[in-house]
Design a protein that fits this description.
Elements lengths: L1 H21 L14 H14 L3 E8 L6 E7 L10 H18 L7 E5 L10 H6 L4 E6 L4 E9 L4 E5 L15 E2 L5 E6 L6
Parallel strand pairs: 2-3
Antiparallel strand pairs: 1-2, 4-5, 4-8, 5-6, 6-7
Helix pairs in contact: 2-3
Subcellular location: Cytoplasm
InterPro entries: Ribosome_maturation_RimP, RimP_C, RimP_N, RimP_N_sf
Main location: cytoplasm
Length: 196
Amino acid sequence: MAKSTDKKDLNSRERRAANRAAQGVSAPKTKTPFVNTDEIRIQLLPVIEEFNLYLEELRARGAGANKTLEIVIDLPEDRTDFVSLDTLAEVSQALSKKLDEIEDGDSPYMLEVTSPGATRSLTERRHWKRSIGRLIAITTVDGEKYLARLNDVTEEGPVMARKKETKKGQKPSYRDPETIGWGTISSAKVEIEFNS
């Protein structure tokens, strides 16, 4: 049943495209960023590296009066603390100055400099290294979900002490640490701890 619906939708889209072409209307254009993020990345990397920081992500989003250049920075993987607000302010100023130097100013936009949130998803090995000592929410490829304390990161996978089920009010306890293979993890993110 699903296949025939998909085919019907495809034929409907093809008919609409043919009608637009017959009327001289071009197909909607794919959205392109308002700035060349690859070129800007090359220009901004030295500024970010001066602060001994890592460029996690650079995104250009929005259009018209709502354009934003979002730059996400992080500490090196051997650090487990967070980027301070003072550092964010300093880096933001330096990046803004550099952007003023390399752009003509014809297309104004908002610059947003941030760092990854406290409950970041762990999608790269460097994210795992930055999270050593923290509690991690794991979802396996089999769909199992559990919490574990991250002790170390190896080539084979993270070394984790799985959290035991305890009664409310009891002190948390953990199983012996074990290496969890990278291929067994579907997703992982840092869990906020209020009483750590």
